[in-house]
User: What shape does this take?
Amino acid sequence: MSFFKRILKEPEVAVNSTSPAERRTIPRFAINPQFKLKAVLSFTKRNDTQSPKGNTRPGWNWQCRILDCSEQGVRIKMDPTLKMQARDLCDLKLSVEGFELTIPCHIANIREEAEGLIFGLKHNIEAEKTWNAYWQLLEVVALGSTLKLHRRTTKPDESGYLVEQYVNNRPAHLTIWRHPANQAVAAFEFRLKDNLVRAVAGQKVEYLTGAAARPAPAAQALEIQRLFSWVVLNLASSVPADVREFLKTYTS
Assistant: This one.
């Protein structure tokens, strides 16, 4: 069920243990369509046997697209012809690259917005393993989607390159070095919590771990690579397109 076994091992307090006032301030994290997170809404545990479109069968699953997520739940876009109501119980089945997670939830609200018909789902997570796995996925989304420009130099620093830095409080810290002559990306260093990924253009990528940034053992390096690959597919729009494309070349 877990997406990672060697990294992202310390989930924060589950939302069910927070007060109602705190829940109203819990942030939502946008999910980029490029992040290949598949989502299916399942109603197989309901007592009735009639599907939202009027078909009769013992259980049904409907593909949907997740717009954003939080500790409390997710917002999804679905077929507007589906006949569903607030408080309907369902399972949200998530999968990415062979990893799967099923989250019990219910429909909290249905709204017509600019994106179309949007369903707000509220999680009903009770199992600790399910919460821990969902927290890992939430961190993957947040690490990239909340990056903001922190610093951009207009003159080369002591290394001879222009420097850009994008940060958030997860924490994640992306540093980009550019050639001053044409501003092409020359190198990057991406700290993702206790993990570090870095590379110089044309050279092999490095996967490091810990405050001392030591080379990660093989099994851990594979997880850091997967984390990096998923985060890069969900970077905030504040990260320039050429930087995103440069990082993607190191995700395979």
Remarks:
- DSSP finds four helices and 14 strands in the chain.
